[in-house]
Amino acid sequence: MSISLYRKYRPQDFQSVVGQNAAVEILRNSISKSSVGHAYLFSGPRGCGKTSAARIFAKALNCLEPVNLEPCGKCKNCLATTAGENLDVIEIDGASNNTVDEIRELKTHVSLAPFNSKYKIYIIDEVHMLSISAFNALLKTLEEPPDYVIFILATTEPQKVPVTIRSRCQHIPFHRISTEDIFERLSYVCKSENINANAEALWEISRQADGALRDALSILEQVAASSESSSAITIETVENALGAGSRHAFEKWLQVSREDFAKSYTVLKAIFDSGTSPVRIFEEIFVSIRNLWLVRKYPQIIYSLGLSDSEEEFLKEECLHWEIKRLHEMLRATVKILAQARSGVRGDVLLGLFALEIDPDNAKFTPKIPEPIHASRMQAPVSMPIQPQLPVSKPKPKPEIIPNIPNIPNDNALKNECLRIARENNFMIFCGLFHAEFYTRDGNLFVRFADDYTFRTLQLSNNPAKIHAMLHGKASSGEVLLEHSGEFFTCPNFTTQPQPVKTQPLIKPAPEIITQTSPEPFRTPNSKPQTAFEKFLSDLQRLPVENEIILRRKTTPDEISEQDHEQDPEQYQEQDNEDND
Questions:
Q1: Is pLDDT of 309 > 70?
Q2: DSSP-derived 3-state class of residue 580
């Protein structure tokens, strides 16, 4: 029986470990400085070399003739560890040996001295699968093992390992292996195994592995078995073995999308019909569009994307035919459909939704004109009993929809002038107008809002009248209109009549009394500037009160009259003593 490629080419020394330079450097330095810890936690995604690094570390610690901190691979300890027959290197599968009884049995053997090696090393793979009771049983032994015992815990989900366990270990993270490193390793394996494979096929296998070298070797073995011995492995061979959905297929889809949208739907449907996972399809679509957007906006970033030479040439040529705004829309649509794909929606439904989202003629990007109601569609009135007529207030003007308004750019000078006027008169309205755009058309002043919330808020209460009073005649002689997404609101010109206020005699005179008689009209920039106290009084007069507003200033001891001293001399004498103190 032949050995699988991932087993045959498993690294046997630190130099052969691919893409984990930081972790390997830590392990080598701990050996060279004789500062080996009693417990290690190796964490990282699947197939990145955690268990292989643990075996190499065990061989390096027990090797009888190490060479430059590397295991020799020839002594009896190295050969026994490689074959899995070393009694002093115990590997335990945490997924199948996760009960407290098995951990208790492990503890009974920990105190035994090693047979033929310097260290007794326990490698517990998938340690996060242990039960809580098993972790508690391992806790004390892991904290204070004998001097000759070393624990190496490996896991793909370190967050599931209790903090009490992690705090007693040296945590060494392993990372996903880059596509370039996987490609180099696959090229070496193909050369060693006399496998004829195109570079594009190896790049596609490297991407399919998703950072796991073990998966890449398994895919290579599968593709090599599906192809004829005399023919080379091509990108078509990879698609036939794994299903459609290669990077080359999505490059073709992008080219067709900008030329013939209907044909692009057929190309994408063929990828779905091949049986490829919808999640993987939309992930590849997102990556392809993302690369195109990055190269279109930042051309120099193409050398940092980990692409083959043919893919780089494709992006350089294809990005010239796309607009950044269009790529933005397609990226947002892909993210939206990807979330639905992960929730289990059918593939044909996802394909239809995606086509609707990226359709360049999508109606949601154009303003809608309301359809007129014909007399034939109106129902006959229903007779109702006569109700007494109640006084109703004047209805508030509603936004009107004015189609075919050109998109006039913002006038910065006009905006600055309007904001200056609003800031001097009403700070709340100034905040609402701060991010708006201003322009004039047919003698009218238009204020364009990007968000609906501010557009609706400034229509409440008497805000429209204030805006009209501030901006009418200052920046434009016509009307003042608020605009958002094709809707326009005309600010009315309401004038507030002063209301008489009944005065009441005061029981006790006050040092200073301000009586509200009528609201103060808006002050224009050409009038005399107000002092801070006058602005304060103007704000108070806008409060919805019916009676007088009385301001009383606190009286100081120096301003107390002799008559007040005579009315209550003891009280003021006590106040004077406190002030002197």
A1: yes
A2: helix
